[in-house]
Design a protein that fits this description.
alpha+beta, 3 strands, 53% helix, elongated
């Protein structure tokens, strides 16, 4: 009989990759802005990042869009746009 861990290794769990990407994007954006950004405030769809943050923070993210893209590219996350 196989253990639960062995069963989970062979099956992909839906949403795990997306949750990891959102968490990573939030950490990188938080490092750039010095403002608290959670994974719940980040959406990643069709290689585009959507931030649900106050307008002042969003403006700072848009001004530093190229830095954000470069940092995420180094981590293996491709981002085409930030909104």
């Amino acid at each position: 009989m196989r253990s639960l861990g062995e069963l989970l290794k062979s099956h992909r769990i839906p949403g795990v990759r997306l949750a990891e990407v959102r968490s990573t994007c939030a950490k990188v954006a938080e490092g750039l802005t010095s403002c608290a950004i959670t994974a719940k405030q980040v959406q990643y769809k069709n290689q585009t990042l959507f931030f649900r943050v106050p307008s002042v923070v969003k403006t700072e993210l848009l001004l530093r869009e190229e830095d954000l893209k470069a940092a995420l590219q180094a981590l293996g996350i491709k981002v085409v746009g930030v909104k």
